[in-house]
Design a protein that fits this description.
elongated; about 40% helix; 6 strands; alpha+beta; about 170 residues; Thrombin, subunit H
């Protein structure tokens, strides 16, 4: 008896449908730019409304502004859906730009699909565990300065009171 091949189902990245679209600029490697409107966005790509479709496979830079800040990403244009809508996939997305997208897209839906409960608990417990290195250096510096200042004040106090101590002990 033969078995059916196992199909690996990759969960689809959650999409955010933008009401009225978000202005976007597509920049080609030769510097040419065209304007469009971003209608759907996900962590893997999205859908642009353009005056006319671009060549499938075109490598472009895509710029748009979200509620979390501006995003600049490399993208590849996919086959047009119709005369004015064309999907794209991200080919390069800087970490900070990805973070901006994650803050506006309901990523929790995606994480529920692929991330086990124990991993969520571990992530939640360790989120505040690591303090940035600059913060640690600043804390150490402030503590050191505080100890030095207290030592100087104590020494000054003892030196001013020392003659009185000599009189009391005699």
């Amino acid at each position: 008896m033969s078995t059916l091949p196992q199909v690996q189902v990759t969960p689809r990245s959650p999409r955010l449908h933008l009401d009225g679209g978000t202005p976007a600029v597509v920049r080609f490697s030769d510097g040419e730019r065209i304007s469009g409107s971003l209608e759907v966005i996900s962590l893997s790509g999205g859908l642009l409304a353009l005056d006319s479709p671009l060549a499938q496979g075109s490598q472009v830079k895509l710029m748009f502004v979200t509620g979390a800040g501006s995003v600049l990403a490399g993208a590849e244009m996919l086959p047009p859906v119709d005369r004015s809508h064309q999907p794209f996939r991200f080919t390069s997305l800087a970490r900070q730009d990805r973070n901006r997208l994650e803050s506006i897209i309901p990523v929790s839906v995606y994480q529920d699909i692929v991330e086990p409960d124990w991993m969520k608990k571990l992530r939640a417990a360790s989120e505040d565990r690591y303090v940035p290195r600059k913060q640690r250096r600043l804390n150490l510096t402030l503590r050191t300065v505080g100890v030095i200042v207290l030592s100087l004040i104590s020494a000054a106090f003892l030196l001013t009171r020392l003659p009185l101590l000599k009189l009391v002990l005699k």
